[in-house]
């Protein structure tokens, strides 16, 4: 999944996002952009207040929007692969003593093999939640956390090996623009992966899913979280999102090639994949 000294770009997901995405203070930021204390340019303050959809409602873009388990899984995967490789190398050296083997582990400075993950969200509070979860799971290295905008990524072209977003692009105000930015920051050969709610393709499941979505989910949101509107928006935004084929075409229009998708649970969710070639 990751090559030596590779960088992966992740977004942190929540219920209500605005323009979601990821950024990090890594080498190669655009030098022409105004920078903050971390070397990352500030979000644009000059966007005009135009209207967009918010579920079934029409609102201004400023109103649309108010965490990174996948990033943690990536780090765990890379570390496990690196440790597995080291163990295989050690097994091949049957003449080593246990003391020598222990010293090899102790001298290992970077269990991630140079790989790094950048987690980005437009919401500071979501980033705080992500950092807390990272600390709780013992992730101290290999992660960068930056406030950023999916539609205006502060990276040079061709920076990342992998770009993945889960349950977030549905809430981006201008999806086409976010896809174009994803294509721009990926290296040639880099891969785009998106996990998102999609269109149910089984009529029976569709009727049951609609009943559950509109009659149960908002009620649960009100009872458990005291927030009917957020969960109502969740249901509406899912219905507003393009179908699997329509979203595939959007990804292709952004410049990606070999675009495919896999529907899961009768299409309730889908994984789209594309490559920058």
TrEMBL record:
Residues that bind S-adenosyl-L-methionine: 121, 149-150
Gene Ontology terms describing biological process: methylation
Main location: mitochondrion
Molecular-function GO terms, alphabetical: 2-methoxy-6-polyprenyl-1,4-benzoquinol methyltransferase activity
EC main group: transferase
Protein purpose: Methyltransferase required for the conversion of 2-decaprenyl-6-methoxy-1,4-benzoquinol (DDMQH2) to 2-decaprenyl-3-methyl-6-methoxy-1,4-benzoquinol (DMQH2).
Protein name as it appears in the record: 2-methoxy-6-polyprenyl-1,4-benzoquinol methylase, mitochondrial
Organism in which the protein naturally occurs: Mustela putorius furo
Lineage: Eukaryota, Metazoa, Chordata, Craniata, Vertebrata
Gene: COQ5
């Amino acid at each position: 999944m990751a090559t030596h000294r590779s960088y992966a770009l992740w977004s942190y997901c929540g219920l209500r996002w605005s323009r979601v995405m990821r950024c990090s203070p890594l080498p190669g930021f655009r030098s022409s952009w105004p920078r903050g204390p971390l070397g990352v340019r500030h979000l644009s303050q000059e966007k005009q207040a135009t209207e967009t959809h918010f579920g079934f409602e029409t609102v201004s873009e400023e109103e649309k929007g108010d965490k990174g388990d996948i990033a943690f899984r990536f780090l765990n995967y890379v570390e496990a692969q690196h440790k597995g490789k080291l163990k295989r190398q050690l097994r091949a050296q049957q003449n080593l003593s246990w003391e020598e083997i222990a010293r090899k582990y102790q001298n290992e400075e970077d269990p991630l093999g140079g790989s790094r993950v950048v987690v980005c969200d437009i919401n500071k509070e979501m980033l705080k939640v992500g950092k807390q979860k990272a600390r709780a799971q013992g992730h101290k290295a290999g992660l960068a956390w930056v406030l950023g905008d999916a539609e205006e990524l502060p990276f040079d072209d061709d920076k990342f090996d992998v770009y993945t977003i889960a349950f977030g692009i549905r809430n981006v105000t201008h999806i086409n623009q976010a896809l174009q930015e994803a294509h721009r920051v990926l290296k040639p050969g880099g891969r785009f992966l998106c996990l998102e709610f999609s269109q149910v393709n089984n009529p029976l499941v569709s009727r049951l899913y609609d009943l559950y979505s509109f009659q149960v989910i908002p009620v649960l949101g009100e009872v458990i979280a005291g927030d009917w509107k957020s969960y109502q928006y969740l249901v509406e935004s899912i219905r507003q999102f393009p179908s699997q084929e329509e979203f595939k075409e959007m990804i292709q229009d952004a410049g990606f090639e070999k675009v495919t998708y896999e529907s899961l649970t009768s299409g309730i969710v889908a994984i789209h994949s594309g490559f920058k070639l």
